From TrEMBL:
UniProt keyword annotations, A-Z: DNA-binding, Transcription, Transcription regulation
Protein name: FadR family transcriptional regulator
Record bears the keyword GTP-binding: no
Record lineage: Bacteria, Bacillati, Actinomycetota, Actinomycetes, Propionibacteriales
Keyword GTP-binding listed: no
One Pfam family hit: FCD
Organism expressing this protein natively: Nocardioides hwasunensis
Matches recorded under InterPro entries: GntR_C (IPR011711), TF_FadR/GntR_C (IPR008920), Tscrpt_reg_HTH_GntR (IPR000524), WH-like_DNA-bd_sf (IPR036388), WH_DNA-bd_sf (IPR036390)
């Protein structure tokens, strides 16, 4: 029997119904769900099953369960942290090396840049320009460099107009640069990355998809070569959950 054909737990079925009701009801973050007695009657399950369903949704970032009088389940908007946890656990249990993340980044980010060239809004392009400027003015600061480097790639991912790319980069942004695994970026390397960001920004500002793709492809190729030359041992390390 395949995994997909296994009967679902009642609590998971209820959790899906709760999410469907939230969506169809137009509820948003901060809204409260009905009292437990109302939900028990509506879903036709026992208290234990309902609480298991709500706990599952809390672990997925859909709800927060506030204790005490006036508490109960409150809707919240999930962020990419939950995707990151799932992805990294999958990679760890499949014994995937960090090189797979590097390879995926090399393959996907040029595509994101091509889409962003035609879809990125002016305010996002302005933010991207500010990110490059801030990196340029603070190259001596490792912390500011890392923050602006991550912001740059997040802005392009979301600027692609494809939420899948945006959530994926959001999920992996804290580990794709390898710093949690001991990778460092001395000032000379920071200057090279700044130059790459300037070229990508210039291509995006002209809305040239081919040039944006090529500039990002060159940037990612440089990143791969840097990792191979200086941190080949990191590339072979298995991705583990503790890097998040």
């Amino acid at each position: 029997m395949s995994v997909s054909s296994r009967p679902q737990k009642t609590a998971l079925i209820v959790a899906k119904r709760v999410v469907d009701d939230i969506y169809r009801g137009g509820q948003t973050a901060g809204d409260r769900l009905p009292p437990e007695r109302v939900m028990l009657e509506h879903y036709g399950v026992g208290r234990g099953t309902l609480r298991e369903a709500l706990r599952f949704l809390e672990l997925q970032g859909v709800l927060t369960l506030k204790p005490g009088p006036g508490g109960g389940p409150v809707i919240q908007k999930p962020d990419a942290t939950y995707l990151a946890n799932g992805l990294v656990l999958l990679l760890q249990f499949s014994e995937s090396p960090f090189s797979m993340i590097v390879e995926a980044r090399r393959d996907l980010e040029p595509v994101m840049a091509r889409h962003a060239a035609s879809r990125m809004k002016k305010d996002s392009l302005d933010q991207l320009g500010n990110s490059v400027e801030q990196m340029r003015d603070n190259l001596e600061s490792r912390d500011i460099f890392l923050a602006t480097n991550r912001e740059f790639h997040e802005l392009i991912a979301w600027g692609s107009g494809n939420a899948m790319y945006g959530f994926l980069i959001d999920a992996l942004v804290d580990i794709v640069d390898g710093t949690h695994m001991g990778v460092d970026y001395p000032e000379q390397r920071r200057k090279a990355i700044l130059g790459a960001h300037e070229r990508i920004l210039s291509a995006l500002q002209t809305h040239d998809g081919d040039s944006s793709f090529a500039a990002m492809e060159e940037h990612m190729g440089e990143f791969v070569r840097y990792m191979q030359r200086r941190y080949s041992e990191v590339l072979h390390q298995t991705v583990t959950w503790d890097i998040l």
